[in-house]
Design goal:
Layout: H1 6-30, E1 44-50, H2 57-65, E2 74-80, E3 98-102, H3 115-125, E4 131-134, E5 139-140, H4 145-154, E6 159-161, E7 164-166, H5 172-193, E8 205-208, H6 209-214, H7 230-237, E9 244-246, E10 254-256, H8 262-273, H9 282-304, H10 309-336, H11 346-365
Parallel strand pairs: 1-2, 1-4, 2-3, 6-9, 7-10
Antiparallel strand pairs: 4-8, 5-10, 6-8
């Protein structure tokens, strides 16, 4: 039935229209001019849950201590999630702005799987700061990052999302992660501009303590090992009284370390995909379904195209449409954040992306689960 060859083309056209809408929203958000905020900035607690990050945590701590935020307005709370590498030891942590907590001192109840949420909850419960900022132990923070977040709260925001890129990029695997995360940053900002918040990244995520308490914290999503960022954002988004904003200033770009190797990347993305059934954001659900169907249509058409020139042409055309619109969007976000050199990896990444998305999406649908840092799948 040659008419079936039109299906992947129609899906790709729908994908192009959807991405064009995201692009328009992104341009509106990324071009916004920040307003001056009179002092004082809110008090802030930066909560860092960590597990076996002895090699990376010191660099993050140095970055956080060097923030240009008023010194008397912020503190840093490190929460050790049962580390076994001695990452919490040493004089590095003997600083007046630092508090070190250990989840082992107040362990969660038996059967707990959301250890990161438990660690975050412990840190949040030990501070009286107005604003909570979360990040990951493998991140690097520019000096201006905290001030940019503080200014957003000074303008009346209740939740603020910040940009995150992967760095460094030294091979195809890390370039794949970097471009994938760049796309997430564009979509995050676009959905804020469209008043339909969908994505957040716990490496650069901030919210008022009052808002966190208002939505019940992690209650209701603490049965999942991950999702401390996106699932919490969705709880915030359901409360129409809360103002959610995004910071797109390149001066506040947080970078996170890539995972090493394709196998590790596979399990990371499968872990992320495993919580998709718990998302309550229509915009995110649409994005996942449309992206998956577009890739499935391309891969399916190319496979059938081994026996039918019509399907082969349809698959190549659908792939080209997707590749063109993705190129425009990713070049825009990479250029905005000063990482345009990533685009030299675009073609090989785009060639493998549909196969990757179909593989991960199918594995998630089949119920295959991934563990994290020597913890079994939950």
């Amino acid at each position: 039935m040659p008419w079936l060859a039109a299906v992947p083309l129609l899906i790709s056209l729908a994908y192009v229209c959807w991405q064009y809408y995201n692009y328009a929203c992104w341009l509106r958000t990324s071009s916004a001019t920040p307003q001056a905020v009179p002092p004082p900035l809110p008090t802030v607690a930066i909560v860092v849950p960590f597990r076996n990050e002895a090699a990376r945590l010191p660099d993050l701590v140095k970055d956080l201590l060097a923030q240009d935020y008023p010194p008397d307005r912020f503190e840093i709370i490190l929460v050790d999630d049962f580390s076994t590498d001695g990452g919490a030891a040493g004089a590095l942590f003997s600083h007046e702005k630092l508090t070190l907590l250990r989840l082992a001192d107040d362990p969660p109840s038996p059967g707990t799987v959301a250890f990161k949420k438990a660690a975050l909850g412990m840190g949040i419960s030990r501070t009286t700061a107005e604003v909570i900022v979360t990040t990951d132990a493998d991140c690097r923070w520019p000096r201006e990052t905290l001030t940019l977040l503080g200014r957003a709260f000074g303008q009346g925001s209740d939740v603020v999302l910040g940009p995150v890129f992967v760095s460094p990029v030294y091979d195809l695997g890390t370039a794949f992660q970097a471009l994938d995360l760049a796309g997430f940053q564009l979509f995050t900002a676009a959905t804020i501009a469209a008043d339909s918040p969908a994505l957040a990244n716990g490496a650069h995520f901030a919210f008022r303590r009052a808002a966190f308490e208002r939505v019940g914290g992690y209650a209701g999503v603490d049965h999942l090992p991950s999702g401390d960022d996106v699932l919490l954002l969705h709880k915030f988004a359901h409360d129409e009284s809360l103002k959610i904003a995004v910071v797109t200033d390149p001066a506040g770009l947080v970078t996170t370390a890539p995972v090493r190797g394709w196998r590790a990347l596979w399990w990371q993305r499968l872990r992320w995909a495993g919580k998709a059934g718990n998302y309550t954001s229509p915009a995110l659900n649409l994005a996942q379904v449309l992206a998956f169907l577009t890739s499935l249509g391309i891969v399916g058409a190319l496979v059938v195209g081994l026996f039918s020139p019509v399907f082969l042409l349809a698959g190549i055309t659908a792939w080209s449409l997707k590749g063109l619109v993705d190129f425009v969007l990713l070049r825009s976000v990479c250029r905005h954040y000063g990482h345009e050199e990533l685009m030299r990896w675009y073609l090989p990444v785009q060639l493998i992306y549909p196969v990757y998305l179909v593989a991960v999406g199918s594995a998630a649908v089949l119920g295959i689960k991934a563990g994290w840092k020597d913890r079994p799948p939950a």
